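Priority: medium. Attachment 1 of 2:
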C-alpha cells in the first residue's frame, strides 16, 4: 500500500467546495478532478474517496481517471523538490546508488513525497550536466559528483 500523508483541514475544505460547486453537473468528474489538481497541485487518495461518495460514482472510476492521465499527481508537492538523474552518463557513475540512498534514508519513492512533505522525489533522464555526474538537484540547485555518503549532507541543508 502506498504511503499517504493525511489531508489537511484546508485541503478537505477545498475539495468540499469544488464538489459542491459542481454537484449540479453530473458527468463533471474530470472537471472536478482538474480543479482539485489545479488548486491543491495533487489529487489525494482520501480526496478521491470523498469525490466518489459525494458524486455517487465508483471509486474505481475516479482512480482510473487519475491514474490514466499524467497530468494528475497522487502525492502532495513537497516543500523541496529533489530530482535524481538516471541518464546513462550518471547511471554508469553510480546514480542508482544515489537514488537508493535517497529512497532508503528518506523513505520516499520516485513520484512520491515524504510523509512529512519535506521532499518530493522525481527521476529524470538527463539534466544536461553529464560531465559532473552523478547529479541530483534540490529546488533546481545542481549537486554534482554525488556519492551515497553525500546524500544526507546535501539534503539536510533543506528544512
Ligand atoms: S545523464 Fe545525468 S546529467 Fe546527463
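Attachment 2 of 2:
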Amino acid at each position: 500500500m502506498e504511503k499517504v500523508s493525511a489531508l489537511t483541514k484546508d485541503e478537505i475544505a477545498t475539495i468540499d467546495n469544488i464538489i459542491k460547486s459542481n454537484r449540479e453537473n453530473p458527468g463533471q468528474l474530470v472537471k472536478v478532478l482538474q480543479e482539485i489538481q489545479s488548486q491543491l497541485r495533487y489529487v489525494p487518495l482520501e480526496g478521491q474517496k470523498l469525490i466518489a461518495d459525494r458524486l455517487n460514482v465508483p471509486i474505481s472510476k475516479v482512480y482510473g481517471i487519475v491514474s490514466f492521465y499524467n497530468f494528475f499527481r497522487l502525492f502532495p508537492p513537497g516543500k523541496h523538490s529533489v530530482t535524481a538523474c538516471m541518464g546513462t552518463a550518471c547511471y554508469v557513475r553510480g546514480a542508482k546508488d544515489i537514488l537508493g540512498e535517497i529512497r532508503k534514508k528518506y523513505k520516499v519513492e520516485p513520484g512520491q513525497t515524504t510523509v512529512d512533505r519535506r521532499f518530493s522525489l522525481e527521476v529524470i533522464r538527463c539534466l544536461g550536466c553529464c560531465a559532473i555526474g552523478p547529479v541530483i538537484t534540490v529546488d533546481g540547485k545542481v549537486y554534482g559528483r554525488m556519492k551515497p555518503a553525500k546524500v544526507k549532507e546535501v539534503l539536510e541543508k533543506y528544512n
